[in-house]
Amino acid sequence: MKENTIKVTITDREGKTHKLDAPTDMNMNVMELVRAYELAPEGTIGICGGMAMCASCQCYVETPELELPEMSMEEEDMLDQAFYVKENSRLGCQIYLKDELDGLKVELAPESEISE
Amino acid sequence: MIKTDILIIGAGPVGLFTVFEAGLLKLRCHLIDALPIPGGQLAEIYPKKPIYDIPGYPSVLAGELITNLEEQIAPFQPTYTLGERAETIKKLDDGSFVVTTNKGTEHHAPVVAIAGGLGSFEPRKPPIKEIVDYEDKGVEYIIREPNFYKDKKIIIAGGGDSALDWSIFLTSIAKEVTLVHRRTEFRGALDSVEKVKELVKKGKINLLTESEVVEIHGQDKVESVTIKHTQEGNKTLEVDHFIPLFGLSPKLGPIANWGLEIEKNAIVVDNATDYSTNIPGIFAIGDVNTYPGKLKLILCGFHEATIMVQSAYKIINPDAKKLVMKYTTVSGITGFDGVKKEQQKAVTTKI
Q: Number of Cβ pairs closer than 8 Å across A and B?
């Protein structure tokens, strides 16, 4: 592991897996990492700006052995109203990248908005 | 009809600050917002959250920023249409616009500035492919008139306060109430959860947990829905109405149908000049717009508003001389009531 960098694996909505170097000294979260690497089209992820208000960054955490930050009330409320929610669902905007999350693996949940 | 110089759609921080910059150019503003109070998300959703990137404020509460903006724009006497959503726009022969809200209020202005932020908050729709086809044909996301459901078989989906409260309320009106929730727990007020339990015991609410509505069926209207249970599989229920209550999510709303160039749920603007859209006379500023290198920050919206009003001035006053930008530090500000705010002049005395 390089200094101030961890390895994060993200499976995008097309099922393609990306092994990424993620900085830990920028207070970045998983949603922002996905945007930075352009793994999901703009406008389909982080719509609310990372305030746990839209669930567009929902992801499934595949590394239960890693200790993630506890869910806030806002995140729990949002996931309760979101779709495609599983036991391991989290909002990417609420998972901040820290050294202890080295090896984190997540899969992006499907885009859930119905187009009219 | 309400007449103004610049009609601002969205009374969030960027919309409010537009009033100030327009006021400096002696332009009057009227703001429309779907929310009942000015301030957008800052006032409605996170008034107590601190913001750290407003120049000059190491930290400011979102609600406090709105209060300060309101104070700052007060000399320019903005007027408001609150609690109404801008629905339609019509361009008149002289190039001006008439914007009508969902409640029918009409506004006329030569310039429209869309400062709608993330958009209006619209009901979140469950991912059922055919749901759009059944909207207002048995699928409703908002209960407007409870008596509409008199003697009907209804299914409410969701696990929050809204789903619980309406399930309770409609037991006295509807013929049959079924509440469908993905989980076994409800995140509503304890009192409401207890009431639902009681009504389930009495047979007034048919409760289906660990379940989701996955399909809707019917010829011209909803006739039945398929419900998927985590362990037991699918079953179909005959219903008259399916009411999904999953909260709200930000959407561009009716603005999306105004003929503006839209890209990724945002309005494309010309950032090289003045944040104008593809329709002359309509500008888009703040989080609602997009251009190469766009940053969705309040301070960027403030900048965009400042640039935009210079062009708005030229549209509103086509024969005026070249506009000279003045520094408020030098010239102060004069409100529409004639009151001038400026730095006190130094007192000089003859020697």
A: 53
Q: What is the pLDDT of residues B299-324, one digit of tens each?
A: 999 999 999 999 999 999 988 777 77
How far is B186 from B182, CA to CA, in rounded Å? 9
In angstroms, how far is CA B193 from the centroid of its own chain? 30
| E-strand stretches of chain A | 5-11, 17-23, 58-61, 89-91, 104-108
Q: Which residues touch B75 (CB under 8 Å, ≥6 apart)?
A: B23, B333, B334, B335, B336, B337, B339, B341
Report the SS3 class of residue B284.
strand
- What integer pLDDT is reported at residue A1 of this predicted model? 61
How far apart, in whole angstroms, are the C-alpha atoms of residue A103 and residue A61? 11
Contacts of B128 (CB under 8 A, 6+ apart): A114, B213, B214, B215, B216
Residue B159 and residue A84: Cβ atoms within 8 Å? no
Regarding pTM above 0.90, the answer is no
Query: Which chain B residues are Cβ-neighbours of A113 within 8 angstroms?
Result: 125, 249
- Which residue type sits at B74? A
Comparing A19-23, A65-69, A112-116, the range with the smallest average pLDDT is A112-116
**Closest by alpha carbon to B15, among B38, B36, B37?**
B38
